[in-house]
# Entry
Amino acid sequence: MKQKILSNEEIAPGIFRMVVNMWKEAQKACPGQFVHIRCSSSNDPLLRRPLSIHELIPETVGVLYRVVGKGTDLLSKKKRGDVLDIIGPLGCGFRTKPAVEPVVIVAGGMGVAPLLFLAQSLMNVDRHMRAKQALPQNRLASLPLQRRDVRVLIGAKTREFILCEEEFTKLGCSVDIATDDGSYGQEGYVSSLFEESIRKKKAGQVFACGPNAMLREIAAMSARRAVECHVSLESRMGCGVGVCLGCVIKTKGKDGISGYRRVCRDGPVFDAQTVLWDEFISRL
Amino acid sequence: MRESVDLTTNLAGIRMRNPVMAASGTFGYGEEYASLIDVKKIGAIVLKSVTLKPRDGNVPPRLVETPAGLLNAIGIHNIGVEALKAEKLPGLRDAGTPVIVNIWGENVNEFVKVIEALEDVEGIAGIEVNLSCPNVGGTLFAQDAAAAEGLLENVRKKCALPLIAKLSPQVTDITLIAKACEDGGADAISLINSFPAMAIDVETKRPLLGNVTGGLSGPAIKPIAVKMVWEVSKAVKIPVVGMGGIMSASDAIEFMLAGAKAVAVGTANFVNPRTAEEIVNGIGNYLAKNGFSSVSQIVGVLDAR
# Structure
């Protein structure tokens, strides 16, 4: 489906936020879902690039991406007005509870990508639900924010890679920061912030996205405190719709039997306790 | 203009609306793409290889993108023939397009058991015998003419449906294998499966695939495929299904000029799920523009003097 680019800006070194006009398809989007973008009309690079939906604003969809290879480099050179071939929204997103239990969101580096949309949705469930029914925009804007306890913890290597702090704050989330070098917020990993956070105050659900080593830690800490934890994972994808079976990860089911599940269709969001982390991480 | 062009194709008794098929392993069980495309517009769909028992497939990573290509090592991850019958085939009866079941086994006996399990099952237009998966153990039938012929003979005995033999490009002379399959009772030959290949991460000094090696598909292998289709279509009397890196109508027409009666779109489905549909339209336009009334008129008309 051809979609027009409204903006494509570098917001941190090598990191871009792109906004496209695809409201018709995106109205149905749930936080944690992704769009599958063709970066070039030529045969090289051949495959699409899956990018989490970062923001859902009436009429537009935002994605956040880092330039890591040929595809994302081509994407970063696209200009306002250019047209992209995009499929989506795809995949299964975060399974949030409507309850008012406190929520902790943990983002490592580029992991903020799907989590801002999640926070938008959590803080304004009402607006999101109504958006699905395509209420006129002017009415959407006037709907009040939800008062939910959403704690956002963001970690990155250095200050310049701390993304979206302002956006989360504006939504009414509390935000805490950690950087590896201590250039901003607490020095160290975001997992330490998380440990502190859940020790001080119980959380109902945890949602995390970031490097796999971080996700494994967050999953283990959540398990120790018996807190439900959902993680958004990354994998090299082919089709993005579940047919090629290229992006699978090994998980264990409730019955204890392990098996491969598709990141693109069964995920990208998984219950952290079903992921066989050692197997997943050793394979990357 | 388009009404005057006849795209219907009879592939060894499989009656198709047009000659453009979806290749095995790239179209799932038809249902996944249903929300994105109109499956009825495709000539036929070939399902992912099915085995006697469910298979987990290979350890990830299973995919690597290479220049104009895709390297995969899925390892015939599938639900098994009983689940296929119970969960997938009933829904596919209303697909509106012929459904071809692709079968694989570690040995002749397993192939025979799969074909027996499919006997009298409704809604199957044909069987494709996968002699050529590069990513699993077992006999690579497609590299041994006698083994290929023996396999086809055994499957043939149990199968009244049109039988397509799918070949590997990694052989010294593919025409020998194709002829052996024809002698064994195949009704059609499909080629080529992905080409055995590998890619290495120079930083970690490790293979990029969990299975170490995989099969290369996509535009990178198309010229190899066209040549092999040309060779095989001259060597056998049964029809040939051409595949390997088809991305556009022009690609598909190349295969048909080389001798393919039908073509299959594989990797391109991942890039653009509408590829097959667009190719059908493109072939129609090409035929009309060049004064052909039927798609059969361009099959094998390559002038290679």
Q: What stands out?
A: The first helix of chain B runs from residue 81 to 92. The interface with chain A takes residues 25-28, 32-33, 36, 48, 56-57, 59-65, 67-70, 72, 74, 77, 210, 218-219, 247, 267, 269-273 of chain B (CB under 8 Å). Residues 46 and 100 of chain B are 5 Å apart (CA to CA).
